[in-house]
């Protein structure tokens, strides 16, 4: 999946991945995709809920080793 911006949130504990995601999303245009890399297991539920509540779309999610990867399309 092609992302317009990649956010490295590895090693950050809740709520920092969400805080950084929110800031990065503000820099994108509607329809652009943000790729997020996180290691906090709680990020899975947090980012899905955050995307939904903000009118964004969690396009894809995968786990590679200990890294959770998310692709969120800006609403």
From TrEMBL:
Sequence similarity: Belongs to the sulfur carrier protein TusA family.
Designated name of the protein: UPF0033 domain-containing protein
CDD domains the UniProt entry points to: SirA_YedF_YeeD
Organism for this UniProt entry: Mesobacillus campisalis
UniProt cross-references to SUPFAM superfamilies, sorted A to Z: SirA-like
Pfam family, one: TusA
Coiled-coil regions, chain positions: none
UPF0033 domain sequence ranges: 7-31
Gene3D superfamilies the UniProt entry points to: TusA-like domain (3.30.110.40)
């Amino acid at each position: 999946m092609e992302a317009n911006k990649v956010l490295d949130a590895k090693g950050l504990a809740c709520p920092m991945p969400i805080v950084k995601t929110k800031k990065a999303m503000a820099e994108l245009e509607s329809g652009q995709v943000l790729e997020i890399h996180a290691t906090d297991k709680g990020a899975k539920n947090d980012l899905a809920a955050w995307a939904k509540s903000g009118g964004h779309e969690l396009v894809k999610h995968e786990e590679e080793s200990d890294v959770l990867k998310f692709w969120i399309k800006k609403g």
